[in-house]
Amino acid sequence: MSAAIAGFAHLASGKVRDLYAPEGRDDALLLVASDRVSAYDVVLPTPIPGKGAMLTALTRWWLARFPDVPNALLDDESSVPDAVRDRSMLVRRLDMHPVECVVRGVVTGSGYAEYVERGSISGVRLPQGLQEGDLLPEPIFTPAFKAAQGDHDENIAFDRVVELVGGPAAEALRATSLDVFRRAAEVAGARGLLLADTKLEFGAAGDGGIVLADEVLTSDSSRYWDADAYAEGRRGVSFDKQIVRDWLRAHWDGTGAPPRLPDEVVARTADRYRELLDRLAAAD
Ligand code: ATP
Ligand code: MG
């Protein structure tokens, strides 16, 4: 699943990323984004060529837009081998807060299902009568507990975040997540993209502060929709693996091993990821 990298020890692999530690150093991590694609919480047997590099480029592009938000990227990445450079980030190794900091500008996906059932998402009460894909009056913070590998993340109310990380850190997670989301939505909006939602992760800084870590505003962690299509009433025209999800739903019942993706689905998905990066970065 993960190749050996000279000078680094493999620590763990998530569904998409492989984690390495630089030999002889315990304060840093190498996050290597693979081309693996997951859907419905399983990794598919077919990679999407270039995906790891595109997600890494997206994270770096966004981090550069938030110079005032402390992040985990290290200044000196010269030790990263060329072979994995385009899909790697050398980061400060942090004690991660076990909270997925989800912000939603739109009610969709699992959030919409929870809203239908309870009238709220992660304990945040919402107006009645919202339809799937409706814009919320303002973005909301809907945290989830980051489950151990293999388990599903579970939406939690803000009080539970306070119990998990303490009051000051919980407040900081919420305020910073909302701030990053609002600013990112504005940047995306200027490029014809509607940022529907995103998931951020933070670590503890040591001095009580929080540090933005993991992937940031990538198409794996966020839903971007085409703003023109949305304005025309076509919702969910997205720049992520929706093509993969749709194909899987039509060709797989969710039991047993997932099937290989046809070349055409792979190519269209890769194009979609590429288009997002092009649209964001083109206006620079
Ligand atoms: P999934 O397979 O559902 O994506 P995952 O999110 O746990 O699971 P990956 O995203 O593939 O796995 O791997 C990245 C892991 O590295 C995450 O657990 C994330 O919390 C952790 N991580 C990211 N940045 C840092 C950091 N600076 N310090 C410590 N851990 C980090
Ligand atoms: Mg992850």
Report on this model:
- This protein is α+β, with helices and mostly antiparallel strands.
- It has a domain of 137 residues: ATP-grasp fold, B domain (D-amino Acid Aminotransferase, Chain A, domain 1, 2-Layer Sandwich).
- Helix content is 33%, strand content 26%.
- It is built from 8 helices and 16 strands.
- The strands form 4 sheets. Strands 7, 8, 11, 12, 13, 14, 15 and 16 form an 8-stranded antiparallel sheet that branches. Strands 1-2-3-6 form a 4-stranded antiparallel sheet.
- A hairpin with a 3-residue loop joins strand 1 and strand 2.
- Helix 1 runs parallel beside helix 8.
- The longest helix is centred in the middle third of the chain and has 23 residues.
- It starts with 7 loop residues before the first strand and ends with a helix.
- The mean pLDDT is 94.
- The site of adenosine-5'-triphosphate has 17 residues, from strand 2, strand 3, strand 6 and strand 14.
- This is Phosphoribosylaminoimidazole-succinocarboxamide synthase.
- GO terms for molecular function: phosphoribosylaminoimidazolesuccinocarboxamide synthase activity.
Q: Please give the radius of gyration in angstroms.
A: 19 Å
Helix/strand class: alpha+beta
Corresponding CATH architecture of the domain at 95-231: 2-Layer Sandwich
Query: Averaging pLDDT over every residue, what do you get?
Result: 94
Strand content: 25-35%
Which percent bin holds the helix content? Answer: 25-40%
- Report, as a whole number of angstroms, the end-to-end distance: 36 Å
Order of H and E elements: EEEEEHHEEEHEEEEEHHEEEHHH
CATH fold type of the domain at 95-231 = D-amino Acid Aminotransferase, Chain A, domain 1
CATH superfamily of the domain at 95-231: ATP-grasp fold, B domain
Low-pLDDT stretches: none
Number of helical segments with 4 or more residues: 8
Per CATH, the class of the domain at 95-231 reads Alpha Beta
Shape: globular
Tell me which oligomeric state these chains represent. Answer: single chain
Unique ligands: adenosine-5'-triphosphate, magnesium ion
What kind of sheet is the major sheet? 8 strands, antiparallel
Count the strands? Answer: 16
